[in-house]
Design goal:
Elements (H helix, E strand, L loop, with lengths): L1 E7 L3 E8 L4 E8 L5 H16 L7 E5 L2 E2 L4 E3 L11 H9 L3 E5 H12 L8 E6 L3 E7 L2 E2 L30 H4 L2 H13 L14 H9 L3 H25 L3 E5 L7 H14 L2 H5 L2 E4 L6 H14 L13
Helix pairs in contact: 1-2, 3-10, 5-7, 6-7, 7-8
The structure holds zinc ion (ZN).
């Protein structure tokens, strides 16, 4: 039996046909549409056709950015096309398949939990660092949604009371300090002050280039990732103290920096968190890479839509 998982990002819409055991049988993608709902839903429809035309998928799980309640994307500042839309209803009626929608970082977490670095873990947090910082929390084998389904937005833990403004309306949120734009801003500031670096070549600075330069030993890039990791560790300290997770899994494009980011985060956690809780928690890289969201969405659909056909994994909340 197979399920379709779809991960809607700002750049690409990625889809996978995923077997019950989490194996990805087929993938496809389309360029995303941030503003035009009709074009976006046509592309999803097209993607589902390509993935499932001959495979008889049972249903569709969708990970979407923003605040997502049971079926609807209630607030998506980076993807206006989805704002206030009943995306599950739209996808379901266009494709003729049952559909469920959740937050994209929650679907990443669910994928890592069932098929990636979180296998065998019962209490975990998955952090996804890219343009922003998303998170999903799994407590007692269940995805935590909270009263509105909006939890958990760890990117908006306040780590600097006097920090810069955030898209959520707050200031000094973790996401403003630990994300691809934050890394780029730090490097550009340092270059502006005349700091030497291989990145001072006139080309646009990107988080990916900073990671690559750091791996090659560029001092400014190493320092930048270290400072970013330090703030990540301050944010993770709060999660560890509150939730007592066994594992924090860190994925997303920025996490490609690996130990250069995670080692400083670990040092900060060890220095700040309640020591027994800190010792109980591993901080590890994600295992599924950019497939996590679509794998998680497909497996969530299997659980959520396929309840009548028997359950093989811990139940998702909601
Ligand atoms: Zn915020």
């Amino acid at each position: 039996m197979a399920w379709i998982g779809i991960d809607i990002g700002g750049t690409f819409i990625k889809g996978g046909l995923v077997a019950d055991d989490g194996r990805v049988e087929r993938t496809a993608r389309r360029d995303s549409e941030r503003f035009d709902l009709t074009a976006l839903s046509a592309k999803i429809d097209d993607l589902v056709g390509e993935l499932g035309a001959d495979a008889g998928p049972r249903g569709i799980g969708v990970g979407a950015p923003g605040l997502v309640s049971n079926a609807s994307v209630d607030f998506a500042p980076n993807m206006p096309a989805l704002n206030g839309r009943d995306l599950a209803g739209i996808v379901g009626s266009r494709t003729g398949l049952p559909a469920v929608v959740r937050n994209d970082a929650d679907m990443n977490a669910w994928g890592e939990f069932l098929a990636g670095a979180g296998q065998g873990v019962t209490h975990m947090v998955c952090i996804t660092i890219g343009t922003g910082l998303g998170s999903g929390v799994i407590i007692d084998g269940k995805l935590h949604g909270g009263a509105s389904g909006y939890g958990a937005e760890a990117g908006h833990i306040v780590v600097d009371p006097d920090g810069g403004p955030c898209c959520c309306g707050g200031r000094g949120c973790l996401e403003t300090l630990v994300s691809a734009p934050a890394i780029v801003r730090r490097v550009e500031d340092a270059l502006g002050k005349g700091r030497r670096s291989v990145l001072a070549d006139g080309e646009a600075v990107t988080a990916k280039r900073v990671s690559e330069a750091a791996t090659g030993g560029d001092e400014l890039s190493v320092d930048t990732l270290s400072e970013t990791g330090r703030y990540l560790g301050i944010g993770l300290t709060t999660l560890i103290n509150v939730l007592n997770p066994e594992a924090i899994i860190v994925g997303g494009g920025v996490a490609a920096a690996g130990r250069l980011l995670l080692d400083p985060a670990r040092r900060e956690v060890d220095a700040r968190a309640y020591s027994r809780l800190s010792q109980a928690c591993r901080i590890v890289p994600a295992a599924l890479g950019s497939d996590a969201g679509m794998v998680g969405a497909a497996l969530f659909a299997m659980e959520y839509l396929g309840k009548a056909s028997g359950r093989r994994h811990p139940a998702p909340a909601g």
